[in-house]
Design brief:
- The chain is mainly α.
- The chain folds into 2 domains: about 90 residues, Orthogonal Bundle (Arc Repressor Mutant, subunit A); about 30 residues, no CATH class.
- It has 6 helices and 3 strands, in the order H-E-H-H-E-H-E-H-H.
- Strands 1-3-2 form a 3-stranded antiparallel β-sheet.
- Helix 1 crosses helix 3.
- The protein is elongated.
Length: about 160
C-alpha cells in the first residue's frame, strides 16, 4: 500500500470502506463482501476524474488488491470486460481472516518494502481544555434567559437591601 499512487489509494480506501467497513444488512455478525459502486460515486467521493477512476481500478485489479465482478459474480479482469456493464461490484482482496494463526502472519511491511517509512518524532498528546460547563471552579456559561433572570434577581436583592 505504501507504493500506491494517491488516486489508487483513494479508490482502494473507498472500496474497503464500502465493503469491510459496512455491516451486512441481512446478517449483523458479518461484513459486506462485495458492493455495487458507480463511477460517479468514485468521482464524487475520491474527487477524481473519470479517467483517473478507470485507470486506478485497472491498476488495482492488475495488482490483485481488488476484485471486480458483475451481477452474477463473474470476475471482470480487463477493462474490455468491464466496459458497458450496468453494474460493477467491487470487493477488496485485503480481507481480515480471524481463522489464521498468528504464526502464519507475514512480517511487518517495513521489512519487506523497498522504501520503508522512516520513524519520525512522536507527538506529545495534550488534553483538550474542558468546556466551561464542566469546570467546577470558575465561570459557568449561562443562556440568555438564565443571565437575564440572574440580573433581575440581583436588582431585586439590592432594592430589597436599600429598603431595609
Amino acid at each position: 500500500m505504501k507504493t500506491l499512487p494517491t488516486s489508487e489509494f483513494k479508490i482502494l480506501l473507498l472500496i474497503i470502506r464500502r465493503t469491510t467497513g459496512m455491516v451486512d444488512r441481512n446478517d449483523n455478525t458479518k461484513r459486506v463482501q462485495r458492493a455495487w459502486m458507480s463511477q460517479k460515486l468514485f468521482k464524487m467521493c475520491c474527487n477524481l476524474s473519470g479517467r483517473a477512476v478507470s485507470t486506478g481500478i485497472d491498476y488495482l485489479v492488475k495488482k490483485g488488491l481488488i476484485e471486480v465482478t458483475d451481477f452474477n459474480g463473474n470476475i471482470l479482469d480487463t477493462p474490455k470486460q468491464r466496459r458497458g456493464k450496468l453494474r460493477l461490484y467491487f470487493a477488496s482482496r485485503l480481507r481480515l481472516d480471524s481463522k489464521e494463526s498468528p504464526k502464519k502472519k507475514n512480517k511487518a511491511c517495513e521489512l519487506n518494502c523497498n522504501n520503508p517509512v522512516t520513524p519520525v518524532h512522536t507527538i506529545k498528546l495534550t488534553e483538550i481544555k474542558p468546556s466551561c460547563d464542566m469546570i467546577t471552579q470558575g465561570v459557568k456559561r449561562l443562556s440568555d434567559t438564565e443571565r437575564y433572570q440572574e440580573i433581575q434577581q440581583k436588582i431585586a436583592n439590592t432594592a430589597h437591601q436599600r429598603t431595609d
